[in-house]
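# nightly structure sweep
# worker-07 picked up a monomer target from the shared queue
# config: single-sequence mode, recycle default, output format = structure tokens
# input follows
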Amino acid sequence: MPIAVLRAETVYLPPPSQPADLWAGVPAAELVWRWIELRMGRRVTPPEETVDETYYARINQNRWIADCTSCGSAAAVSPADPRYACTECQWGWCAMIFPDDVAAVEAALMPLKPGLRNWWHPDDPANPDRPPADVPEPGPLEATP
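# output follows
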């Protein structure tokens, strides 16, 4: 059976020494904060404010992620909780844009090996495969005196 595309709720899990349901009920977008807190060994608090910015989710090597436009850090995200706040620079909560049919995008990637599963939203300005914007054709060259 192929490995499913990973989401925040399948990436950020409690350590094996803790009950598997320790973080049950924690929204998917907030799991990274629990995981970072555990790994850093100190309290980290998600921001309270919402930032008027949206991020496009993308699949990078079989994980749904968001890239912080403020500091460049990234974290796993989930269509089940489409928000993102950066644990690195504390940039506030941003709305996430996922494809209309998440299951179809994930299914289309299943024939690939997990490390080769990459996908960008077609509307994402950072998408390297996005067609260039309409560029006007250059006019006829004008003769110079």
